[in-house]
Design goal:
Blueprint lengths: L13 H6 L19 H4 L8 E3 L8 H17 L2 E5 L5 H15 L3 H4 L11 E3 L14 E8 L16 H26 L6 H5 L5 E9 L11 E4 L5 E5 L7 E5 L2 E4 L7 E5 L1 H6 L9 E3 L7 E9 L5 E2 L17 E2 H11 L5 H4 L6
Parallel strand pairs: 1-2
Antiparallel strand pairs: 2-10, 3-4, 4-5, 5-12, 6-11, 7-10, 7-12, 8-9, 8-11, 13-14
Amino acid sequence: MNCLALWPEPVVRVQHLSDSGISVIPERYVKKPSERPSISESIDKEINIPVIDLQNMYSSDESLRRKTADLISAACREWGFFQVVNHGVSHQLMAETREVWRQFFQLPLELKQVYANSPATYEGYGSRVGIGKDISLDWGDYFFLHYLPMSVKDQNKWPSLPVSCRELVENYGEEVVKLGGKLMKIFSLTLGLSENHLEQAFGGEIGACLRTNYYPKCPQPDLTLGISPHSDPGGMTLLLPDENVPGLQVRHDNKWITVKPVPNAFIINIGDQIQVLTNANYKSVEHRVMVNSSKERVSLALFYNPRGDVLIKPVEELVTEEKPALYSPMTFDEYRVYIRTKGLSGKSQVESLKSLK
């Protein structure tokens, strides 16, 4: 079946638009004035999300372990984002995996179209999210694939070109999922829980999927966005950014802060499901992506999610008289249907659940 035909209107590859040499972007990509990026607001050399040396969590120095745990806890409470270095994932594997995806997007269009996705699952080569006609579009293409559980993993849907792609993605996914497991234990401990508490609340069997983002050069970057403002609906996101081309922005104190990537670091952000589990002690924060006129960008987001059929609700130990449970129980599958049918995006996704109490 031709997956492109399943979309309600013709799918245009943003990379094709960029390569065509246009000087004015199509109206579909122009954001409302209130939603456009403000360059003057976004650049502040003095502000960045916290950068944390994860190796210190395993130091023989108890005071250093405690200090590092406090830094992670503060980052999750105040920012919802932080960067980790010395995280245990091979720097060479990170670089090679990002590069093989860059090579994929440079392949001829007809080779990439073999993996064109459909609105049913979004798995494969895509250029839009949402099936509504005449919706505002973002300036970027992507490749989305499932990694865990094994029952949904199908490497035949992964790119066979470049030839090293499938092997690199397999190894990369394995390593980054391990890092996610380490962070889940740390989050549990920093909340005063047993180290396996959050992982067990996820159902003991996590879901993982990878979205590789490709942001082509844009002739009018002040009018559009690579990804519009949103919070991540899942548990946690582990992002390998393009460290040479900043673009990710995080909303903090009602301002957009441009993240300055640290070499060989992962950017970690809390998702909606962990905000629910922690009864909003840890925050799922709105973020977006800018594009630019001179450089393309490639980033890899691995989403670390709970099992779809497990009820997610505030952990009892984090519910008190002063702070009662803020959210009603809901499975991750139900939550995804909820935000899709309600047309929610951004901060309103998880905040809207409070109204269901």
